[in-house]
Amino acid sequence: MLEIKNLHARIAEDETEILRGIDLTINAGEVHAIMGPNGSGKSTLSYILAGKDDYEVTEGEILFNGENLLEMEPDERAAAGLFLAFQYPIEIPGVATMEFLKTAMNAQRKARGEDTLSIPDFMKRVKEAAGHLNVSMDMLKRPLNVGFSGGEKKRAEILQMSLLEPKLCVLDETDSGLDIDALRIVSEGVNKLRGPDRAMVVITHYQRLLDHIVPDVVHVLSKGRIVKTGDKDLALELEKNGYADYIDTAA
Amino acid sequence: MNASAPIKHTQAESDLLERFDSAKEGLSGSVAVKALREAALGQIRDRGLPHRRVEEYKYSDLRAYMKSAAPLAGAADEAAARSLIETQDGFGDLDRYRIVVANGSYLAALSDVEALASEGVTLTSVAEALAGEMGTKLVAAPKTGPSDGVIALNTAFLQGGVVITVKSGVEVSKPVELVQVATAKGAQSVRNRVELGEGAKLRLLETFVGDTGEGELNTVFDYELADKSALAATRLIVSKTDAAQLFTTIATIGAEAELKSLGFIAGPQFSRNQQFINFTGENSEAKIYGVTMAGGKSLADQTLIVDHAVPHCNSREFFKTVLDGEAKGVYQGRINVAQHAQKTDGEMMTQALLLSEDAEMANKPELEIFADDVLCAHGATSGQIDEDLLFYLRARGIPEDEAKTLLVLAFLSEAIEEYGEDDVTEGLEARVRDWLADH
Q: Which Pfam families is this protein grouped with (chain A) (predicted)?
């Protein structure tokens, strides 16, 4: 589903190189975890996948279901089935959450040549998904993410993910700022979406999230490269020994 | 006063002097009114149209903008007016009363005279009243600062308008739309007066349909709010015309009364919405909102002076401006607090969103406070669309144009929602979208 080949990228503004040759292949149905210390390039990778233009790809390519992802606009990527759950979901004053959800769902449907949702159909989907994630109607009436607690923001991200039904979910430190209960609710929401046609990239600092969302493959990212790949036990080993071994390897 | 050398008239000023000579026989009014017209024209003759060296018009140079002045519009064709109102109505199902002023004159035949009368609202033709005792009162513009040039222009050429009188204690059950119509090209000079009796309540919607060609549209509203009355006035200045759109409010607010207004500007090449708000009774409130959209090379000006002459009154001013292309936005807001106007609470905010590199916003908030026990604040911001917000929306599949539209709507809706009057303002979203689609 996703093929990243020799990806090099830098910050557009000051040309700081962040990614230094990433190779990564993710197949449908797989859940990959990407772990690594601060500054290793985890969030940069997620932003490049979503199409944020603060970064510049200097080498390599990304194929998403065979298409050249880097040539697509952010909204085209979303319509093609890529979803980034933001580490810091943005507050958007004046745009009611419900209105935003409807606009996003219909924009993607339109881009794919599908009919827009009827209001009752839309409401039914929202109510069902919101129920699972403990998102109240009151929250949905409020402006998107404005005044939401850390946990509420992350639940709202997963709600969007459930409703948009992406093919590839990229979760950027979804566990940050969550207490145990919120972590459980969010993880359940994510696990519900696991399926043979869907792939996930779970970016995290800590193994804790991976107790809940058990990955098929674990990668260690350090200084812009994948320095180790293993199964879920690699995450446990990292939790015990830290990243020190891998940072040295990369240097 | 210093005597100054006669000015060299611009083409538009020469046109105006000529217009007056040819129109004055037909312009109604008592002897006193005629003298006021002559004096107002004298002001134009002596000082010219307001221009950038007049402090209040520093950013909005009407003299430079008006290349010529078209003659006044002739009498309206009733059928044409009816058809324009029906085909260009932008408020769909909104249940309302209607009052029509066409080509500068009150048109009773198309106004809901009887239905309004049954609610305690009477309508009087300004053109007729000018000839009578009320004439000078209608034309006199109290407390508007030193002889405003736009008001002088209005007075000199005043054709007509309507006086809406709401009896004491009457709460008009439906919004009243005062629609100004142009069935023929030509300038319009209109004055409307709204008199609310004690405890009366009115929701007014001020709209315009038609095309004045190259003739300026100059409309003055004079609101007089008796004690405990409440007026909510929604003014739409929406058109793609090159003709200058000049709107003035003169409001006098009695005790325990409330004035709320929204001035919505979208599209004209040159527009000015100026408001002079005067508190004359205590414990009253004025909430003045502005929503402005300007693109291309257009100019849109929202100017207001709130005069706290008495204690214990609150005023709130909240203005939002969206600019594109090489457009220029102007906000001039001034709160005056007289020495004995203690416990005044005044709060003024103006915010601009610039969609292009070449757009320009002139924000000029002013406070002049002589009392020592008051709460007054003002703020002004100008900014661009937040790229992080835009990216977030696009990352959810919303195309760039639609994402920008959502963010502009969100920006403007803060002022519209605070103003309220949801049934009247819900149609404004479509107008914002229309404007954005054109830019």
A: ABC_tran
